[in-house]
Write a structure and sequence with these properties.
13 helices, five-stranded antiparallel beta sheet, Rossmann fold, five-stranded parallel beta sheet, Argininosuccinate synthetase, chain A, domain 2
Length: about 400
């Protein structure tokens, strides 16, 4: 924990919302330091220029608002999707994967501006504080980190609002009461947690969902699409080449309109507690199904099974915040090596919340009509060969069985 007087300049991850506006003023008062604001456009769908205006009103001279959408998808989302990463078998890691990029850019800005500290708005109960700070320290080991929620004396939302009013920080009407739930969003997903969602037995209210229509309200006619892959990455939708961010945005629209990508999850946070979250990942849900489909055609059996066995570990590293670590980079190298022949086209049917694979083709296909046919295979496979194969694999089982018989078991 940094101390007042130790910090000369701090780069704050700043959304322009009430909490980070309070943090900005609190940093100025508590540390007497210069503050640099950094706002990342990760495709959250909000107008970001108001953040600039609010920072200027607070007297901030160095303001960074960066469009990171393409870097986010190309260098973070796509590498993760090559691994088919799902945390606890369900969560597509939409919040987790954004944090290392934000941390990386904050450190870059700190170097550019001569800042000796960075700060974030994550609370002391969540995972994000860990993700941000592990990223900071991995990239700049000597950086000072200020985590206001772990340091300040505010005990309630009322205390925060009183501080805001005292310092002429505008408080929107919808922020004066307890927020019904908290939201995080980017181009990959939106997540909602807390308050009305805290009872895991209660169905979430319809107003919680922001990225998708309800599956029962989706069209009665299915939508067919085709996604083309090269080296494990999606490069085209319905025959049209697109950049990574453009393609994910287009899949989001398709998923939204077909009620795809809703997940109601009770997850294990890294800090030790369970939490209930509502996640919407429309485009990512489609992309994952398509990627697995093209892998089924192009990956060798043992390569696929090894990759699948390592996926939970990869997903944990992303969820816990260990993106900038040798173990994640080692796993990434293995994953990327596996994707060299993962190319081709997958055809999907989108219908009322479902993503249904209906076709796949690839110039690198390992699928053989001659081998799998029930008709005459013209000698491609001698079925008699299976007898020796089975007897060899049964040898240890027969040996174990005979021992059990001897022992009377």
């Amino acid at each position: 924990m940094a101390k007042s007087g130790d910090v000369k300049k701090v780069v704050l991850a700043y959304s322009g919302g009430l909490d980070t506006s309070i943090i900005l003023k609190w940093l100025q008062e508590t540390y007497g330091c210069e503050v640099v604001t950094f706002t990342a456009d990760l495709g959250q769908g909000e107008e970001l220029e108001p953040a600039r205006a609010k920072a200027e009103m607070a007297g901030i001279k160095e303001i960074f608002i960066d469009d990171l959408r393409e870097e986010f998808v190309a260098d973070y989302v796509f590498p993760m999707f090559r691994a088919n990463a799902l945390y606890e078998g369900v969560y597509l890691l939409g919040t987790s994967i954004a944090r290392p990029l934000i941390a990386k850019r904050q450190i870059e800005i700190a170097r550019m501006t001569g800042a000796d500290a960075v700060s974030h708005g994550a609370t002391g109960k969540g995972n994000d504080q860990v993700r941000f700070e592990l990223g900071y320290y991995a990239l700049e080991p000597g950086i000072k980190v200020i985590s206001p929620w772990r340091e300040w004396e505010f005990k309630s939302r009322t205390d925060l609002i009183e501080f805001a009013e005292k310092h002429q920080i505008p408080v929107p009407k919808d922020k004066r009461g307890e927020a019904p739930f908290s939201v995080d969003a980017n181009l990959l997903h939106s997540s909602s947690e807390g308050k009305v969602l805290e009872d895991p037995f209660s169905e979430p209210p319809a107003y919680v969902f922001q990225r998708t229509i309800a599956p029962e309200e989706a069209p009665d006619t299915p939508t067919y699409i085709e996604i083309e892959f090269v080296k494990g990455d999606a490069i085209a939708l319905n025959g049209k080449k697109m950049s990574p961010a453009e393609l994910l945005a287009a899949l989001n629209d398709l998923g939204r309109d077909n009620g795809i990508g809703r997940v109601d999850l009770v997850e294990n946070r890294f800090v030790g507690m369970k939490s209930r979250g509502i996640y919407e990942t429309p485009g990512g849900t489609i992309l994952l199904a398509a990627h697995r489909a093209i892998e089924s055609l192009t990956l060798d059996r043992e390569a696929m099974h090894l990759k699948d066995s390592l996926m939970p570990r990869y997903a944990e590293l992303v969820y816990y915040g260990f993106w900038f670590t040798p173990e994640r980079e080692m796993l990434q190298a293995l994953v990327d090596r596996s994707q060299e022949s993962v190319e081709g086209v997958v055809r999907l049917k989108l219908y009322k919340g479902n993503v249904i694979v209906v076709g796949r083709k690839s110039p690198m296909s390992l699928y053989s009509d001659e081998l799998v046919t029930f008709e005459d295979d013209r000698g491609a496979y001698d079925q008699k060969d299976a007898e020796g194969f089975i007897r060899l694999n049964a040898l240890r089982l027969r040996t174990l069985g005979m021992r059990k018989m001897r022992m009377g078991r």
